[in-house]
Amino acid sequence: MNQRLIDVIDRASAANSAEARVAAFDWGALTGELDSYGCAVLPKLLSPAECRNIAALYPDGSHFRSHIIMAGHGFGKGEYRYFKYPLPDLIGGIRTALYPHLASIANEWNARMGMDQRFPADHASYLQHCHDAGQTKPTPLLLQYAPGDFNCLHQDLYGDLWFPVQVAILLSEPDRDFTGGEFALTEQRPRMQSRVEVVPLRQGDAVAFAVHNRPVQGAKGNYRVNLRHGVSRIRSGMRHTVGIIFHDAR
């Protein structure tokens, strides 16, 4: 069997595995969490071995298209690398498998907020829209934090087209590999103080969260709230995370 055929089989196997594990979650409950709080945890999306294997990719620049030092851009302190296409099979498979579930939520949110944009049911079609708009660079990334590092509150918007939900997967184990480094989400409601949601995660857990806006039901109908996300200061050890962003960038 030649290497090209082996690679095709491996990608198909990874895609099937990703689809099965994503489908096993209670998406009704997850949708309720996202509607209520702007985020939802997908526990044990990746195994410890998968987490270690992905984190081990970080030093090898051949997997990535760019390397960002956060301090140089005012993003905080730490660093990350954007994967290049083709993505690692597991990350690409998870991205593809998650998208239809999240697209359904995004379409409902846009309808409630009075926004016209709707997202296609499959990820390949959405990526084609991005590419037609000149957004062709892959956005999944691998982040690395050392003691004293943090990520400022921000929104991952990379062009005219952006997807309203993204996912972060914690690859390191809290209190063993690192301390500190909590994932935090802030929500600004009109004429109100910001609400903070701190999301406890273990190794392999993923959090799906709103990128920019989400609808909230008020006394006079739905209104938009604005969200930002970040990571608190790492106090010791090393923290690795995979970020899965569903739109491509310019």
TrEMBL record:
It comes from the Bacteria. InterPro entries: DUF2086. This is 2OG-Fe(II) oxygenase. It comes from Camelimonas fluminis.
